[in-house]
Every structure is written in C-alpha cells, then in structure tokens.
Amino acid sequence: MSTRGRRAPLPEVGHRRKPPLEPGDLVVWHTAEDGVRKASYDFGQLAVGPRLQREFAEVFAAQAGPEGAWKTLPSSRESWLILLYFSRFLAEQDPVPESLGDLVPEIWAAWRLSRTPNSTGGRQIRKVARLLKEHPRVPEETRNLMKKRMPKETSKENAYSHEEFDRIKLAATQRFRPALHRIRANWQHLEDWRAGRFEKGTGDWLLGEALDQLVRVGETPFYIGLGDRQRPDSRYTEALGSDRAEDTWMRLFMTTDEACALMILMIAAHGWNATPVIEMKVPDASPGAGGEGQIIYRVELEKRRRSQPSRYETRNLADWGADSPGRLITQAIEATAPAREMLKNVGAPTDRLILWRLAQRRAVYGEGVAGLFDGHFHANVWRNWRQELGGGLSLNLRRLRKTVVIAHQRQPTQHSQDTHDSVYVLPDPRTHAAAQSVITDGVTEAIEAARASFKAQISRADTDAGKDTPTSSCSDYTHSPFGEQGLPCRASFLLCTACPNAVITPRHLPRLAYLLQVLEELKAVLAPEVWDQDWREPYTRLRDLRKVPDFTETEWSDALAEVSAQDREVIDQLLKKGFDA
C-alpha cells in the first residue's frame, strides 16, 4: 500500500449484534443469520405520524430480531418496501390514522382493493397482515379481516420453448465464462507473485502486489488525499491499466450481472429454486472412486418454507470433466474463492458459494468492505437481462426452473409428486400438446368400445313419438357420445343401440326385429372383411338386445309380424345409406 499522503486504514467490519430497535428510536437494525450482514431501516421516513411510525418500527423489529422470522436481508427489505407503500396509502386517507388503533375495517378493505389483482398485490396484502394482525392495538374486526385467507393465485407462467431456453443459457454462459477466465488468470498472477516469480519493482510485480492488497483489504492500493477522499495510487494504476472497476476489483471479484449469470446456469442445470441457489454454501468435496481427478460434491439445499426435518436436502454431484454434473460447481468455487478469502481477511468470513461485489457501496447494508458484497439481486439486474436477451424475451427464474423440471428432468425437484403434477406438468401447454395424441387415441378406443356394446336404455313405458329416430327414441339429441357436445347428433342411426341416450320401448321392436332379420341375411352373402368392418357391431348389439329379459321371444316374433310397409322403407333406406357410406 502506498505511504504517500495519509495512509488508508483497513476497512472495519462490526461484530457487535445491535438490538433491532433502541428505546425511543425509529431506526431498526436487521442482522442476517450469518451474523455479518446488516441493514438499517429508518421508520422516520414513513409518510405517517410519529406514533404510527413507532408502532410500525416495533412490529418490524420483532421479525428482524434473533427470534424473528427473517434470516436474510432480502426478506426484511421486501417487507420494508411494502410498508413504505402501505404508509403512503394511509397518508392519503381522510382522516389519516394516527395509530394502529385507528386502522378500522374500512381502511383495511380499501387497502386490499387498492392492490393490483395479481401475485404481487396479494403478497403485499399478506405481508402487511402478517406484520400487524397480532398487535394488541389493532381493532378486533380489522384483525379478523387480516386473518381472512387470500384466494390462491393460479400460476399463468408457462415453460420457455426450447429455443428460448437455449438463448438464456447461451447469454448466461457468455457472461459468466469471461468472468471465470479473468479471475482465474489474475489469481494465477497473484500466486506467481506470492511465489516470488517477478522481479521487484517491475510492472508484473506491482500488479501482483496490488492484487495481494485487493485480497487482504478489498481494495487496490490507494491513499487518502485532500478532503478525506480516497484516491488511487498512481504507481499501481499504470500496472493495473486504469483505476476503473474492470482494471481493479473486477480482476478478482464477480460483478452483479456475472453472479446473476452463474445463478441462471445453476438453475438451468439442476432445476433448483433461486433462493437456495443464492444462499448455497460451498459444498463439501471428496475424491471420487471413478479415477484420478474426479471430485464428488455434497450440495446442501435449504428450502425455508419447509419445516424440519424436510427443510434440508442434499445432492451428490460428480465432476469428472467437461459437461459433467459437478463441473459448474467447480467453476463457481474457483470464480468466488478470492472473494471468500478477502472477506475472511477483513473479519467477515462466509461459506456462501455465490459472491459478488457491488459497483458502489449501498448505505443500507452497513459500513465496511463486507457491505460491498451483496446478498440479493436488485430489480435493475433483471431489466439488464431483458436488454441482454433481446427480442422481447424477459428473464423469469420461475419459468426457467419450470422449463428444467418439465422438459429436461421430468421428475420432482425440491417439491412433492403432487406439486410436480398439479403445478408444473398439468397446466403447461407443452404437456397438453404432447398428450393430444394420447387423448385422441383414448377417445377413439372408447368410441370403438361403445360401438361394440349395447348401451341403450330399455323401458316398458311409452315415450314421446316426436323424439323417435328410425330405431329408438332419443332422450338427449345434443349430448351424444359420438359428436361434439351441445350440437345435434350426426351419428348413424345404426349407432343408436350403442348410445346411452337412446330409449327402446315395445313400440320400436317391429323395426328392430326387421333390421335384425335383414342383417342376418346380409351376413350370409357379404364377404367376411366387409361384414366385420361395416355390419358386425350393429348386428351384435341387436343380438344382445334380443337376449335381455325385458322383451320375450313372443314379443320379438309378434313384432316381426307387425312390421309395416313404412317400417320396411325406413330400415331399407337406413341400410342403403350404410352401403353408400
């Protein structure tokens, strides 16, 4: 480090866990589960009065404290933003509530109606209700409304097409791979410097010393100039190339977009949820039995919404070379190892796998260089990816995961079989398209089975003659199993005996007896293949009808004797149409 000017102190990282909310204060501190990352939220910024600001701070602090539900900074940040929206909504009411005791049911109902009717609006309502519903000052009627369950949102997201999926993977690979090569080359240069392979004072030696300081303190050499401003040391700037990010800290640390690309590749490869990927720890590694150089990683995944003991899952991924399941894990460890070493050196050790550095410090994440290493992706990152992909294609991690689960793995991943079927597979158009041929075959088989069996109803009671067909009476002319529902039936009258809507009474026996007689005569003269294809099924159904005990043999004989000229003409026309078809 340069000694010119006032020497720059090493960045400090606090270890004292602050209480979430000091008495009389409006600033709530949230320390993440790792004990290192901290965020502060100033409730004095809310657009409501001081009493309501304090009450909001109290309920917020209960969730941000050691016994609270929030373990990561993104969880508290999301609720903070939603409370900002809620406070602005309250400030527009007349009169403006001064405390939670003024939160009457009408205000809560208006808040619900003001939210967009989608998953985002539903989440905002649920988050506020979860924070406030147990506070003793909330009126009982309002509390009951808060406890009312929100209707479950139906997912409208479909999987990406194969072409879209490949575009996303290619864009992520093109963003992550150069970062890996950049960090790998600079890490090797640092190793060579530490091994004394460069002559002191040369450009390579100065570059190595700058990289060494970057790993030790998180910044390349600088000095404190006038006005306490941090200025780069010009002796190292020439060796580095410039004082821009790509020539300084980006030599050993990934950017937000590059870390995002790595996470996309993880999800695309394994179908994991986004949060477990972001929070994933560096997996344990052991040598594989398949040969020298093989590594087996034991990856631990945490799904926070699950209760013990199913909250944690493990996967064994082997790296035996290019395109092996564990190769991306190896590359991720290599690309983020310098960041983990640096955080350890400044007193903020972490075992998280995916690490990246912010371009500039964000005050909400506290002081110290550790605050530059963010724990979640901001909305602008996804907007950047929309521009990166082009063609109107936007990046949605849920859709990406759904694509992997449905089209590639085709089995449950971090969810149950029921969830896999009902949420992922059945609603997806890809499943519908693939199933169309199966459904068509099934319908065809069902129709064939129906044609081969007698399904008509038999009744001794008379029916409305106005609903007669040439062979029976029809109880529902627009809901035939052989045609489109709601439209008039266009099936052959020979199929009436296979239809459950048909009703056969004694009035219909003369025509049916005559039809059976004619079919028996045809059977004797037609070629077997013609008979089997066109006439065997209606003949079999009539034979089955004659065997049922509802009509006696005497009735069948009398019916044949009672066949009228009109009956013969109707049946003859029916058979003629069958031959013409």
By DSSP, the count of extended strands is 10
Class from helix and strand fractions:
mainly alpha
Q: State Rg.
A: 38 Å
Helical fraction: 40-55%
Instruction: Please tally the helical runs, counting DSSP H or I stretches of 4 or more residues.
Output: 20
**Main sheet specs:** 3 strands, antiparallel
* Mean of all residue-level pLDDT scores: 80
H-E string: EEHHHHHHHEEHHHEEEHHHHHEEEHHHHH
Q: Which regions contain 5 or more consecutive residues with pLDDT less than 50?
A: 1-16, 362-366
Cα(first) to Cα(last) distance is 96 Å
What is the approximate shape? elongated
Relative strand content: 5-15%
Major β-sheet strand ordering: 5-6-7
List its salient traits.
disordered N terminus, three-stranded mixed beta sheet, 581 residues, 10 strands, mainly alpha
Describe this structure in words.
It is built from 20 helices and ten strands. It is mainly alpha-helical and 581 residues long. Helix 16 crosses helix 19.
Topology:
Elements: E1 27-31, E2 38-42, H1 50-64, H2 73-91, H3 105-114, H4 119-132, H5 140-147, H6 162-194, H7 203-217, E3 222-224, E4 230-232, H8 234-240, H9 256-270, H10 274-278, E5 284-287, E6 295-302, E7 312-319, H11 327-345, H12 379-389, H13 397-409, H14 417-425, H15 429-451, E8 457-458, E9 473-474, E10 502-504, H16 509-525, H17 528-534, H18 536-547, H19 553-561, H20 565-580
Parallel strand pairs: 8-10
Antiparallel strand pairs: 1-2, 3-4, 5-6, 6-7, 9-10
Helix pairs in contact: 1-2, 3-5, 6-7, 6-9, 6-11, 7-8, 7-11, 9-13, 16-18, 16-19, 16-20
